[in-house]
Design goal:
This protein has 245 residues and is of the alpha/beta class. It is built from nine helices and seven strands, in the order E-H-E-H-E-H-E-H-E-H-H-E-H-H-H-E. Helix 2 links the parallel strand 2 and strand 3. It is globular and about 45 Å long. Bound molecules: NADPH dihydro-nicotinamide-adenine-dinucleotide phosphate. This is 3-oxoacyl-[acyl-carrier-protein] reductase.
Length: 245
């Protein structure tokens, strides 16, 4: 029970990596604030997750700044505080640069970068005051090394690394840690959209010979949220089976 007594928010917890992180945190004793885009989704997620522990939830689109502020205020009012934030919500809208539409660029920047800004800013306000907390931003190997057809996505995932390092410098004296996790290719709905031959190539390339499971990322997020990582900040933890070696 490494997170006993902590309140953790995980954005994009309805499926995939966010879902696995929420489950892991619940099993480790945290109260977990699940974030879904709509009320129906929230109800369904709470129902699914309550077998693992103390799950609560709110409808929130991370791009809706006013709603983000309202939800963070509600969390503090109803659950006393916020100790851990995992900025996980993310989307892809792939196209090569010469064909990419402005809407594809804007949509990905809005969710993956502005969404992190919106949530991290509210979390930092809470955590600075109480002089403790951890923020974990989900980046990607694509943010470190680039990827064909993902100029918008790569820009956001590199941007998240820049934000992580800057935030770590700004809030370190307040005893708040900020770290990024850079997953490799993980089996979720996001990667199901990718062609089979690309996924096979990634499997081949990885020294560990497989794609990742959402739980592989959840384990890294558990470490970074736990007291064992109290002297770790501003780092980017690659969890990728060695795919980029
Ligand atoms: P999924 O597509 O499976 O899940 C994404 C989650 O984000 C969903 O719960 C979705 O909610 C939510 N979400 C999307 N947009 C918003 C929004 N505007 N506001 C709130 N929630 C939103 O993705 P993964 O689990 O694969 O990815 C999770 C994170 O990990 C992302 O940041 C992704 O970029 C990153 N990542 C994933 C990798 C992979 O191989 N899968 C590799 C590297 C990084 P809804 O159900 O409403 O759509």
């Amino acid at each position: 029970m490494r997170l006993k007594g902590k309140v953790a928010m995980v954005t994009g917890s309805s499926r995939g990596i966010g879902n696995a992180v929420a489950k892991k945190y619940l099993e480790e004793g945290a109260k977990v604030v699940l974030i879904d885009r709509d009320e129906e989704g929230v109800k369904k997620s709470i129902e699914e997750m309550k077998q693992y522990g103390d799950a609560v939830g709110y409808a929130m689109d991370v791009t809706d700044r006013a709603r983000v502020q309202e939800v963070f205020e509600t969390v503090v009012k109803e659950h006393g505080t916020l100790d851990i934030l995992v900025n996980n919500a993310g989307i892809t809208q792939d196209a090569q640069l010469y064909k990419m539409k402005e809407e594809q660029w804007d949509a990905v920047i809005n969710v993956n970068l502005k969404g992190v800004f919106n949530c991290a800013q509210e979390a930092v306000k809470i955590m600075r005051d109480k002089k403790t907390g951890s923020i974990i931003n989900i980046s990607s190997v694509v943010g470190l090394y680039g990827n064909f057809g993902q100029v918008n996505y790569a820009a956001t995932k590199s941007g998240v690394i820049g934000m992580t390092k800057t935030m770590a410098k700004e809030v370190g004296r307040k005893n708040v840690t900020v770290n990024a996790v850079a997953p490799g290719f993980i089996m979720t709905e996001m990667t199901q959209k990718m062609p089979d031959n690309v996924l096979d190539m990634m499997r081949e390339k990885a020294p560990l010979g497989r794609l990742g499971e959402p739980e592989d990322i959840a384990n890294a997020c558990l470490f970074l949220a736990s007291d064992e990582a109290r002297f770790v900040t501003g780092t980017v933890l690659s969890v990728d089976g060695g795919v980029v070696l």
